[in-house]
């Protein structure tokens, strides 16, 4: 595991010869849009030609895009895999064409890790644990029925953020997960599913906390909680993941309580790894791990909100 580094000292002339194809998932969340923006600017800063294909949340579109990048003979392929399984065939094709593949922000399940050069991701199990531990500490011994909004079914962050959180719940008798459903990482579905949770729980007065696998779903759910006549952040605690500016706005209003930061800059370390690999044959570690930092209402959300401006958001 390597900590993320800044811009490498590799020559601009060498970087300018490089074309990278990026199969991006889509634009399901504020975080995702920022990741796309940052990837463009990180490529630009290094003089790298970037070709982006938007898969509109579909794995089949990503597979098509990867095949097209292979046919075009790009120098490297970046993929943010929408789901964790089903990549071996297409990644074997890239390997046969000797095109290195870098996984961005999501991991895959494969029996052959040689199919990709490296993965730049956070520890998504740890993120779930951090969210769970914040909740356990905040509620103390009080009984706490929790509802969970999961990310995209079959995606590595949805699987792992659930796993990490579930571990904490299992270790505390007073924490109880009463409802859990996917909101597909979107604001609209987060709101819709939260509405159904509130209805199913007789208006929601008995719900102690919401755990959302990303901030966008939390923001949608906050709206649903308000429309149900309850106070998000007080009647129902809200903890989520990403640290996008909108969740800090909600924290400023007392409507969200905590978030775990996911950097949208996965591409910087990925470009550096590819440049070092192409230039000097340096093989990067299999996992380049990005940081996960907890923010709460005690962390001056207004200042954090301001500091996020210009970072792709
Ligand atoms: O893979 C990262 C996740 O994807 C982000 O947490 C979420 O916002 C996005 O859609």
Automatic annotation (TrEMBL):
Secretion signal, residue range per the UniProt entry: 1-15
Keywords on record: Signal
Location in or out of the cell: Cell envelope
Presence of keyword Transport: no
InterPro entries for this protein: Peripla_BP_I, SBP_2_dom, YtfQ_transport
Database matches in Pfam families: Peripla_BP_4
Keyword Signal: yes
Main location: other
Residues of the Periplasmic binding protein domain: 21-267
PANTHER family according to UniProt: D-ALLOSE-BINDING PERIPLASMIC PROTEIN-RELATED (PTHR46847), GALACTOFURANOSE-BINDING PROTEIN YTFQ (PTHR46847:SF3)
Membership in a protein family: Belongs to the bacterial solute-binding protein 2 family.
Protein's name in the database: Sugar ABC transporter substrate-binding protein
Organism: Tistrella bauzanensis
Lineage: Bacteria, Pseudomonadati, Pseudomonadota, Alphaproteobacteria, Geminicoccales
